[in-house]
């Protein structure tokens, strides 16, 4: 809120409000990759996301700082970069890794915002609880099966599924699954917030398309599986270091997935089908929330930001899930709608997820904490060219520098010494199939990128 003081004709100082504070609708979508119409992919039906993109600034090159849900969310919401020992895996809690940091919702709460978290915002619902005026999550098993056989096979398992299938197609209403409930809770909150005199930060964390790929049948019916194809990059080249691949244990937990080896082609296409259905399902739920925001006449005073917590491998490099530093796991959807500023623009500027926090607080006129590592992208909204043209992402030992068309990864030990390297040039190899790191003609480039990486990963990278 920006307050101006002035004196009236009688010399009495009067405080006036220049403009009403902006609300923020903060939409997180779990495991959403940028395989969407506004990114050039024409086969997924997501009309509500497409409509929002037409009113927003679309970031074509937004990268998460760590491709695993808990760590990615902790980094984004604290505005701090992962280090060697900070923000590591799905179980990461920001209030443990950076207990003195002022989270984005906490800063807003301190500045008069009503802060609400519905669904999966932080990975752990107990993380940074003091940042929120209220926290809500649907009741029930996290896997959220609706078919009796799957409920029985799943039992009480949450993280490790004993025998249930990796997908489900059920003849149920949208509100049977968690995301339908999260949307309805968001709509109810908007109605309550409408008549309050305080700005709000309403965070909605949607669960799909995270595994298992469970969605109402009508969303599966949108797609013809006979037309679904495996990705062009459905191979693992010998030039790529073995460290770049994993056994996608997150998927193999499910009872209908083989424990070793490639996923059979027919099953792979069924998984892709389920992923598409889940994207269409969550798109419909987000659409309901956006329609209500407009109906309540809150649209013109609300910044909307939508992001996926990381990318996702959908058979790319014969991999599934995240947990790698290929672009398929690092690049994620990011769009922001700012009333009066955005109207469907797109930018190829390289953005890191730690840039989101300083950008939002600049847009609403609040000073950023000094602990933030990111850089505001507001200049892009104003039509300017950003100063920063790089990003750094990491997963466990792998650290990646993204600079221009070059994607350079080192696997390093605690002392920072590399034991494997990977370099792709996206201008000639967008699918990342030809590792250039061992080619003699690229050694000068490798040496320079190695120096740049060590500068840009932060001075505390090895120590914290």
From TrEMBL:
Known SUPFAM superfamilies for this protein? Alkaline phosphatase-like
The answer, when asked if Cell cycle is one of the entry's keywords, is no
Gene Ontology molecular function, alphabetical = iduronate-2-sulfatase activity; metal ion binding; transferase activity
Per the record, the domain of life is Bacteria
Query: Could you say which cofactors this protein requires?
Result: Ca(2+)
Instruction: Tell me which residues make up the Sulfatase N-terminal domain.
Output: 22-366
Name of protein? Sulfatase-like hydrolase/transferase
């Amino acid at each position: 809120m920006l307050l101006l003081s002035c004196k009236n004709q009688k010399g009495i100082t009067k405080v006036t409000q220049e403009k009403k504070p902006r609300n923020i609708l903060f939409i997180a979508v779990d495991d959403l990759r940028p395989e969407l119409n506004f990114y050039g992919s024409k086969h997924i039906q997501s009309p509500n996301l497409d409509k929002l993109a037409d009113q927003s600034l679309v970031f074509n090159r937004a990268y998460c700082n760590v491709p695993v849900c808990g760590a990615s969310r902790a980094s984004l919401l604290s505005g701090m970069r992962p280090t060697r020992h900070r923000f590591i895996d799905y179980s990461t809690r920001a209030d443990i890794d950076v207990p003195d940091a002022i989270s984005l919702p906490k800063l807003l709460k301190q500045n008069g915002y009503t802060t609400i978290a519905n669904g999966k915002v932080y990975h752990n619902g107990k993380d940074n609880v003091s940042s929120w005026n209220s926290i809500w999550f649907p009741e029930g098993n996290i896997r959220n099966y609706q078919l009796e056989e799957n409920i029985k096979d799943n039992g009480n398992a949450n993280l490790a599924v004993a025998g249930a299938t990796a997908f489900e197609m059920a003849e149920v209403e949208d509100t049977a699954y968690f995301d339908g409930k999260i949307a309805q809770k968001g709509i109810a909150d908007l109605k309550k917030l409408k008549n309050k005199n305080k700005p709000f930060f309403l965070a909605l964390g949607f669960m799909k398309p995270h595994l298992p790929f469970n969605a109402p049948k009508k969303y599966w019916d949108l797609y013809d599986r006979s037309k679904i194809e495996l990705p062009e990059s459905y191979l693992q080249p010998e030039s790529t270091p073995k460290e770049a691949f994993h056994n996608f244990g997150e998927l193999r937990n499910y009872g209908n997935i083989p424990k070793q080896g490639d996923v059979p082609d027919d099953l792979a296409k069924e998984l892709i089908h389920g992923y598409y259905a889940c994207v269409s399902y969550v798109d419909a739920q987000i659409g309901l929330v956006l329609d209500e925001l407009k109906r309540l006449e809150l649209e013109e005073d609300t910044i909307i930001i939508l992001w996926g917590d990381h990318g996702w491998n959908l058979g790319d490099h014969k991999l599934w899930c995240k947990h790698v530093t290929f672009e398929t796991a690092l690049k994620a959807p990011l769009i922001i709608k700012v009333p009066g500023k955005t109207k469907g623009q797109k930018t190829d500027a390289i953005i890191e997820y730690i840039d989101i926090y300083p950008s939002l607080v600049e847009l609403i006129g609040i000073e950023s904490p000094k602990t933030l590592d990111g850089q505001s992208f507001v200049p892009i909204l104003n039509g300017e060219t950003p100063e920063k043209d790089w990003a750094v992402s990491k997963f466990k030992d792998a650290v990646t520098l993204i600079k221009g068309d070059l994607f350079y990864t080192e696997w390093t030990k605690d002392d920072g010494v590399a034991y494997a390297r990977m370099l792709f040039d996206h201008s000639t190899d967008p699918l990342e199939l030809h590792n250039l790191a061992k080619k003699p003609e690229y050694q000068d480039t490798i040496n320079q990128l190695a120096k740049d990486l060590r500068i840009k990963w932060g001075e505390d990278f090895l120590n914290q």
